[in-house]
Amino acid sequence: MVMGFEERAREIWKIIARLRAPDGCPWDREQTPLSVKKYLVEEVYELIDAIEEQDAAEITSEMGDVFFMLLFVAYMLEEEGFSLEAALEHSARKMVRRHPHIFGDVEVSSTGEVVSNWQAIKAGEAREKGEEPSALGNIPRGLPALQRAYRLGERASRVGFDWKDAEDVWEKVAEEEQELKEAMKQGDLGAVEAELGDLLFSCANLARLCGINPEDALRKATVRFEERFRALEQEARAAGRELPELELAEMDEIWERVKGST
Q1: Going by fewer Cβ within 10 Å, which terminus of the chain is more open, N or C?
Q2: Residues 6+ away with beta carbon under 8 Å from 36
Q3: d(CA 156, CA 198)
Q4: Neighbour count for residue 152 (Cβ, 10 Å)
Q5: Count of Cβ atoms closer than 10 Å to residue 144 Cβ
Q6: How far is residue 20's CA from residue 33's CA, in Å, rounded to a whole number?
Q7: Cα separation of 138 and 106, whole Å?
Q8: Is pLDDT above 80 for 2?
């Protein structure tokens, strides 16, 4: 008989309990929610890779790993008094509350109206908690910086704080580029860091107004670089040489040839 979702979840929960038992796995027993957060992040990114590659087998594997890590963290927190059941109940109620056009009598005619209602509901929730609502919301600071820049620009744009189109951002990019060059001339490392950050933030918004997620664009660019660099190494080795033995001009020549074929 094939196990259902609930049965599989219970099976994993029992496995975690066994791993965390006094006579369980030493490594698993030593872990805390803080110590495993890096593994949770890694598993999520491995799932993202599998999704982008549209590899069904890898998606199945990585989805299972993410689910295991979530339950592992939940189990450790339950040892400290946390309730997974309460967390799931909270999530369910929140989703129902934020979708009144599905579970209530609110009518919407577009995605834009759905988003507006969502933001209004979130603002109301913040006020109930005694918090000062902001159009920026609470975007996690732990997000990859480019992704967070993208999301902040997206949120600000909802209240009209934005450029009209991508062409308008070029002036800001050029301005930040010039300020970075001046900071570099002065040799002020703190100023260089600040201006470089401003330039990257502007580029993130340029990407957003082009309809592109900058995090995705940079990730794909790094994949291309990695593939081309490995091809560069392979060509050098095929000629009986290693990269440190090549002049930069020789590497550039091979690089351009590799770029032309990828």
Answers
A1: N
A2: 69, 72, 73, 76
A3: 16
A4: 19
A5: 14
A6: 13
A7: 25
A8: no
Q: How far apart are CA 204 and CA 214, in angstroms?
A: 6
Question: What is the mean pLDDT of the segment spanning 26-39?
Answer: 96
Note the pLDDT of residue 3. 62
**Residues 90-146: tens digit of each pLDDT:** 999 999 999 999 999 999 999 989 988 988 898 888 888 888 888 888 898 988 999
Structure tokens at 245: 């033995």
**What is the token pair recorded at 2?**
């094939």
Q: What is the pLDDT of residue 1?
A: 40
Q: How many residues does the chain have?
A: 262
- CA pair distance 189, 162, nearest whole angstrom: 30
Between CA 111 and CA 93 the distance in angstroms is 21
Cα 208 to Cα 245: distance, rounded to the nearest angstrom: 42
First CA to last CA across the chain, in angstroms?
48
